[in-house]
Amino acid sequence: MNNPITLRGLSTISFWAADLEAAKKWYTELFGFKPYFERPGYFEFRLGDTQAELGVIDSRYSPTRSAASPAGTIVYWHVDDVKATFEKLLTMGATTYEEPVERGPGFVTATVVDPFGNILGIMYNAHYLEVLESLKKS
User: Fold this and answer.
1) d(Cα 13, Cα 20) in Å, to the nearest integer?
2) Nearest to 52, CA basis, from 22, 73, 31
3) Distance separating alpha carbons of residues 76 and 22, to the nearest angstrom
4) Please, which pLDDT band fits residue 1 given cuts at 50, 70 and 90?
5) With pLDDT > 70 as the criterion, what percentage of the chain qualifies?
6) Distance between CA atoms of 20 and 26, rounded to whole angstroms?
7) Domains of the chain
8) Which residues, in sequence order, are bridge partners of residue 101?
9) Interval 68-99: pLDDT, tens
10) C-alpha angle with apex 90: 26 to 42, nearest 5 degrees?
11) Is this structure's pTM higher than 0.85?
């Protein structure tokens, strides 16, 4: 059966920052390590179980139709403790976009706006853990 996969997985999630050096410092503190890749106007971290990329780009290069305030699609990163992660983000200067909400058994979400205007979603997702476990078995 010929069934091509069109979306194979997240490659890079892009955030924007007018003060790139401040953003690099903030995200380095959050993650506990420095970006693995840098070039003028851009840096990247590899994160989590699948080493997904979070790139931060100088906002001068943002698409001309970008929203001026936090808006759009929210990417949720799995975390083991939503409440603790949410509180840590707030103490680091992020602001509440949506407080932690239980969406059903095994699913809790929250969102903050980082100091640079990007929406950062965090989530405890039971299905994420099930998929990880199945990948380990294969």
Assistant:
1) 16
2) 31
3) 23
4) low
5) 98
6) 10
7) 9-61 (3.10.180.10), 73-138 (3.10.180.10)
8) 109
9) 788 888 999 999 999 999 999 999 999 999 99
10) 25
11) yes
